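Hi V.,

Quick status before I head out on leave. The structure for the redesign project is tokenized and pasted below; the design run finished overnight.
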């Protein structure tokens, strides 16, 4: 056997066996698939788990795609904010192929639900991002948004601002959560 073959085989085995652990330990994040709000509804619209889906379905986010007219429904700049998972595994591609991924659904705030959706109730559910983060919101709520208003919010220092995460997330929190927090 040539001298370079065994080290090459060892490096290959190392990569195959240990790189998946690297991803799981905080390396390159795993790309989970988006599954759509119908999967979320199965569990998150029961009285025992909060009827969150009903609450979301009455929100502006649940109707976001209907705001797009004509060519906007095919414009990537619009689709990234008015659909779920645009350009990501399992996410929206177009109305014909992925109509179930229109609107700003649960996973846009809480993360792709591929593993979470298949977790059994009796086990610990596989979490996703339970609590929305500002970095997620500002992907769409920013100055590139044609509906941006520079003075929409007043921050805690009295300064007018186009987006204030603390205030915005309180407006978007599910009604059930608002009632629980009283």
């Amino acid at each position: 056997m040539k001298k370079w073959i065994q080290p090459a085989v060892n490096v290959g085995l190392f990569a195959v066996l240990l790189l998946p652990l690297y991803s799981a330990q905080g390396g390159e994040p795993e790309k989970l698939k988006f599954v759509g709000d119908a999967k979320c509804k199965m569990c998150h619209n029961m009285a025992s788990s909060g009827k969150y889906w009903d609450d979301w379905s009455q929100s502006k986010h649940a109707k976001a795609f209907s705001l797009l007219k004509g060519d906007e429904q095919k414009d990537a700049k619009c689709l990234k904010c008015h659909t779920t998972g645009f350009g990501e595994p399992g996410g929206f591609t177009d109305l014909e192929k992925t109509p179930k991924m229109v609107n700003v659904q649960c996973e846009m705030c809480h993360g792709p639900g591929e593993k979470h959706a298949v977790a059994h109730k009796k086990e610990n559910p596989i979490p996703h991002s339970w609590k929305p983060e500002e970095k997620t919101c500002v992907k769409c709520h920013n100055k590139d948004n044609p509906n941006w208003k520079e003075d929409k919010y007043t921050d805690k220092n009295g300064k007018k601002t186009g987006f204030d995460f603390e205030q915005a997330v309180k407006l978007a929190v599910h009604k059930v959560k608002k009632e629980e927090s009283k």
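Above is the designed sequence. The longest helix spans residues 5-24.

G. will cover questions while I'm gone.

Best,
W.
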